[in-house]
Amino acid sequence: MKKINQVYKNFYTDTEYHTLSEYIEKFARHSFNYTKEYELGRYYGVIKDVWNTAVCIGNFPEDLLLKTQKFAEEHFGVKDLEIFDIIIIKYCNDFGFIPKLDPHKDGGTLKKYTIDYQYKANVDWGISVENDIFVLSNNEALTFIGTEQKHGRPDRIFSDNEYVENIFFQFIEKRKQNEQ
Questions:
Q1: For residues 67, 72, 74 and 75, what is the CA-based torsion angle, rounded to 10 degrees?
Q2: Three-state secondary structure call for residue 112
Q3: What is the average per-residue pLDDT within 62-89?
């Protein structure tokens, strides 16, 4: 049986990473839905949310989403997953931010299969999942079950110009038409 919590290197190809970078720079960063969250020390944007499309940045490259979805289905051994949400977060000390992510389990009643993808960072900031710490490099992804496994980040003081930017993909099992 495959281990649930794993780090995958070179998650996207160079071409796919370039496509993702163009998307982030052209759409995500300039969206009014990419906002500052002072209390959590971060920029935050919902790229896609199946239940609240009004707050979404949108336009995520479909080929990257399909690749990520197929990867999730294979890794977690669950057929027919669908995207629940995609969130982009950049932790830094801009505007007096104090980045933090206390240990928590994600909310909701649906089981969420999570891929935590490190898009870009210039500093290491580990991710704790249960009792393990995982340190990602750029273009690496960590897998876990966000609604079942406690996860967060250890306290860390960010210096000027230090940052960590991640994209979170959360998948759920497809619901039958009468369950929607």
A1: 130
A2: coil
A3: 96
**In the prediction, which pLDDT does 158 show?**
93
To which H or E segment does residue 63 belong? helix 62-76
Q: CB within 8 A of 80, min separation 6: which ones? A: 73, 173, 174
Contact 115, 68 (CB under 8 A): yes
> Which structure tokens are listed for 59?
């336009």
pLDDT band at 1 (very low <50, low <70, confident <90, very high): very low
Residues 6+ positions from 38 with CB-CB distance below 8 Å:
95, 96, 97
- Region at 157 (left for phi over 0; alpha for psi -120 to 50; beta for the rest): beta
52: left (phi over 0), alpha (psi -120 to 50) or beta: beta
Q: What architecture is the 7-173 domain classified under in CATH? A: Sandwich (2.60)
Integer Cα distance of 161 and 168 in angstroms:
22
